[in-house]
């Protein structure tokens, strides 16, 4: 009896309450709708207040920062008159150049170190297409952010040690740079080492990714003794790519061997042509990267098998490309 009574009581407790008569239900409906609508309005007001407060905080955080103790002028290196002979190019230091005016999304960097690439002093040799002189020089640098122009992208950058790629004007005390074109550095990296973080390393990565995309297991690289060539020598094994390094001095051959290079050729030796033919056949090379131009690129195409690809990414010889043989051998020639 106890079991029966307890189960019946539990069933009774689970039974829904008796429904209201239809007339009372209709009278209660508008009241419930009003309560629900008021709750929705209350939530919307709080959401608006929260988003407004967040927006105010972002505006305060994204305002211009720093720049209080900066000098009114700076030094910078400019090209006044370019010349094919570097000794005759007019390059001067402006002692009282104005500091860059920051735009939103930019930062001002106090330059600690700046690299010199062939593309940098190329501006000293050839006249700029824009024709704007004096021309600020230098493409990449490292330093400390001393002011920001405001914007979400600049949050947290004031006082940070960075490597930057503004594209021009890094041979100066200060340079403006977009916040999207810099990398914050850990404390273990010296500023002097980080000043060449962009041009050469990213070019090396682009070469090796191109080789991977073309399924090339071996490539030829001229100008192998350069800073870029030495980086390529160290990075290529990690991508599974063998490199035939071509340089023009015997001491460079020995230096590359010490870095771990296996295939190194001296283009100034009498046996260079025969050695290059042997390497191309043994490694089945159909991809080359040339930074010398002139006769170098044409000689590569003459040696490579048909339907090979040669990328010209520099002009260290200051000569035009000898591309006449490219079209007769069905080679693909790309200039970057």
By secondary-structure content and strand pairing, the structural class works out as: alpha/beta
How does the major sheet shape up?
Answer: 6 strands, antiparallel
Overall radius of gyration = 34 Å
- The dominant shape is globular
Overall strand count: 15
Continuous helix count: 9
Contiguous runs where pLDDT drops below 50 for at least 5 residues: 1-10, 324-330
Roughly what is the average pLDDT, rounded to an integer? 81
Please bin the fraction of helical residues.
25-40%
Strand content: 15-25%
Our measurement of the CA-to-CA distance between the termini, rounded to an integer number of angstroms, reads 95 Å
SSE pattern: HHEEEEHEEEEEHHEHEHEHEHEE
Molecular structure report:
There is one protein chain. This protein is an alpha/beta fold and 336 residues long. 37% of the residues lie in helices and 23% in strands. It is built from nine helices and 15 strands. Strands 1, 4, 6, 7, 8 and 9 form a six-stranded antiparallel β-sheet that branches. Strands 12-11-10-13-14-15 form a six-stranded parallel β-sheet, sandwiched between helices. Strands 3-2-5 form a three-stranded antiparallel β-sheet, with no helix packed on it. Strand 2 and strand 3 form a beta hairpin. Helix 5 runs parallel beside helix 6. The longest helix is centred in the first third of the chain and has 40 residues. The chain is globular, with a radius of gyration of 34 Å. The N terminus is likely disordered.
List keywords for this structure.
six-stranded antiparallel sheet, 336 residues, alpha/beta, six-stranded parallel sheet, 23% strand
């Amino acid at each position: 009896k106890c079991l029966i009574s307890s189960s019946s009581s539990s069933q009774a407790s689970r039974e829904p309450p008796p429904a209201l008569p239809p007339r009372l239900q209709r009278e209660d409906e508008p009241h419930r709708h009003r309560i629900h609508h008021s709750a929705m309005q209350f939530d919307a007001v709080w959401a608006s207040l929260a988003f407004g407060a967040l927006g105010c905080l972002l505006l305060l955080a994204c305002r211009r920062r720093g720049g209080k103790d900066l000098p009114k002028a700076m030094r910078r290196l400019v090209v006044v008159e370019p010349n094919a002979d570097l000794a005759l190019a007019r390059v001067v230091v402006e002692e009282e150049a104005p500091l860059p005016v920051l735009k939103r999304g930019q930062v001002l960097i106090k330059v600690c170190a700046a690299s010199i690439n062939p593309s940098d002093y190329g501006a000293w040799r050839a006249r700029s297409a824009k024709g704007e002189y004096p021309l600020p020089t230098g493409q990449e640098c490292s330093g400390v952010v001393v002011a920001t122009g405001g914007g979400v992208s600049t949050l947290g950058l004031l006082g940070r040690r960075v490597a930057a790629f503004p594209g021009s004007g890094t041979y100066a005390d200060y340079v403006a740079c977009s916040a999207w074109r810099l990398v914050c550095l850990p404390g273990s990296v010296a500023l002097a080492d980080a000043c060449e973080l962009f041009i050469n390393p990213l070019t090396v990565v682009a070469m090796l990714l191109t080789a991977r995309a073309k399924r090339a297991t071996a490539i030829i690289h001229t100008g192998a003794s350069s800073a870029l060539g030495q980086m390529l020598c160290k990075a290529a094994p990690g991508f599974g790519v063998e490199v035939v390094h071509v340089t023009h001095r015997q001491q460079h051959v020995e230096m590359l061997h010490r870095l771990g290079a296996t295939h190194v050729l001296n283009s100034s030796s009498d046996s260079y042509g025969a050695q290059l033919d042997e390497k191309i056949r043994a490694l089945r090379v159909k991809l080359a990267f040339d930074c010398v131009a002139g006769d170098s690129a044409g000689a590569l195409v003459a040696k490579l098998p048909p339907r090979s690809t040669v990328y010209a990414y520099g002009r260290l010889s200051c000569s035009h490309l000898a591309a006449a043989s490219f079209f007769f051998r069905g080679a693909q020639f790309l200039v970057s």
